[in-house]
């Protein structure tokens, strides 16, 4: 992690609530701790991932930063069992793809990539809900089945 900019406590509380309510996530904590809240990390129940993974819990990191009226974020899933990771990033790393991109890495296949992404929602909690739906219903099942 490591986006620059400032955080907003009320936004992080809303994001934390989304992560706590999602059926695949457990144990949502602030990182590095509850005093210095740089980002949120949720453990993902390996039994609730399709295809199932395990025995170690994958993680989902969520970081949201503000620069006045502009913002950047990172919603990133990582599976320590397989090395597979993916996520949506709104940052300046891939300007050719527009403001938001999806990236993934499948180490077993030595495959990865970046692609343009977009969310029709504009509220951080709604973007996170949409990303979680896409992650668990489409992206993980499709990409992991390739490995």
How would you describe this protein?
This protein is α+β, with helices and mostly antiparallel strands and 147 residues long. It has one domain (9-144). It contains two helices and seven strands. The chain has a seven-stranded antiparallel sheet, covered by helices on one side. β4 and β5 form a beta hairpin. The two termini are 26 Å apart.
Mean pLDDT: 91
Termini, distance in Å?
26 Å
Q: What fraction of the residues are assigned to beta strands by DSSP? A: 35-45%
**Spatial sequence of strands, sheet with the most strands:** 1-2-3-4-5-6-7
Quaternary structure state of the chains depicted: single chain
Main beta-sheet strand count, sense and barrel state: 7 strands, antiparallel
Domain count: the total is 1
**Topology pattern, helix = H, strand = E:** HEEEEEEEH
Topology, number of strands: 7
Helix content: 10-25%
Question: In DSSP terms, counting alpha (H) and pi (I) runs of 4 or more, how many helices?
Answer: 2
Low-confidence stretches: none
Taken from the alpha-carbon principal axes, the silhouette is globular
Based on CA atoms alone, the radius of gyration comes out at 15 Å
Structural class: alpha+beta
